[in-house]
Design goal:
The chain is α+β, with helices and mostly antiparallel strands and 271 residues long. It has a six-stranded antiparallel beta sheet. Strands 1-2 form a two-stranded antiparallel ribbon. Strands 3-4 form a two-stranded parallel ribbon. The longest helix is centred in the middle third of the chain and has 17 residues. The protein is 35% helix and 12% strand. It is elongated and about 55 Å long. It starts with a helix and ends with a strand. Strand 7 and strand 8 form a beta hairpin. Helix 2 crosses helix 4 and helix 7 packs across helix 8.
Length: 271
């Protein structure tokens, strides 16, 4: 981001409370797996037995919320169909051209959501990016050339600091903001010609998480996940190595979702 809004965003996203409930991340993944969302053969049949809408509760709502999160639309998994779940359903429908694009989870929506989950679970890389002791990262074996270029680009700005608007006026800077660092990484792989603010990144690429690269953005913040590791200016998801402000690698790819933001998830085509 750049401008006055970014100043507020910098404060918001650097004041993370580790005790704040997460709308995603490791805790959510554990919740989904514990509930058997991805492992029990009977789970898919539990979703779609009834049309789900605001005010309903139950295990099928829990599965719906878990699936939405894995499909790139982070939603609190609490088994209660509230406004946030309805908003995620509507956003998913819009992204996948399911009509009407409202907050009701009917048969056509469930079919599209199941397809998205099947694609996601089959495309997760077998290996993840390695974070080295000095804070740099190493691409996993077999990573596409574009992924390797992104990681190399990210490593090159690892020792910079945070500043509002950094990375937007020129690519080479001594400091970067959240969207400036994401833009730099995409540019390093030849995937972005000019830097975008976090709002602009919401419409970058294709909807949903990618096999290798996923971009999380809302009007206040943006971060990128490459090979299962986050590159982020906000202090979430792992040690701040090296010390200081600025973009750093984080071991938990979804740790930043604990800030409660309503992120749009996209990915570069083919990645």
């Amino acid at each position: 981001m750049s401008g006055a809004t970014s100043a507020g965003a910098a404060t918001k996203h650097r004041a993370g409370d580790p005790n704040q409930p997460s709308s995603g991340g490791a805790a959510l993944q554990a919740t989904i797996k514990t509930a058997g969302t991805l492992t029990q053969p009977s789970t898919p049949s539990q979703l779609g037995a009834r049309v789900l809408r605001k005010g309903l509760q139950g295990s099928d709502v829990t599965i719906l919320q878990g699936y939405l999160t894995l499909a790139g639309f982070p939603t609190s998994v609490d088994g209660a169909f509230g406004p946030q779940t309805a908003a995620s359903v509507a956003a998913f429908k819009k992204a996948h051209n399911v009509t009407p694009a409202n907050g009701v989870a009917g048969p056509s929506f469930v079919t599209a959501l199941r397809a998205a989950i099947a694609s996601y679970t089959s495309d997760v890389p077998a290996a993840t990016t390695t974070i080295n002791p000095d804070g740099t990262a190493t691409a996993p074996a077999g990573a596409p050339a574009a992924v390797q270029a992104m990681i190399t680009g990210a490593n090159s700005i690892l020792n910079t600091s945070y500043c509002v608007g950094g990375g937007h006026g020129k690519w080479q800077s001594s400091c970067y903001d959240c969207s400036g660092s994401v833009s730099y990484v995409l540019h390093a792989a030849g995937l972005l010609a000019s830097s975008e603010d976090s709002t602009g990144l919401e419409s970058y690429g294709l909807p949903g998480p990618g096999q290798w690269v996923s971009i999380y953005s809302d009007p206040s913040h943006a971060f990128i996940v490459i090979g299962g590791r986050a590159f982020d200016t906000a202090d979430y998801g792992g040690p701040n190595i090296p010390a200081g402000t600025g973009p750093r690698w984080r071991s938990n790819p979804l740790g930043n979702l604990a800030d409660g933001g309503h992120y749009i998830v996209t990915h570069p085509p083919g990645l």
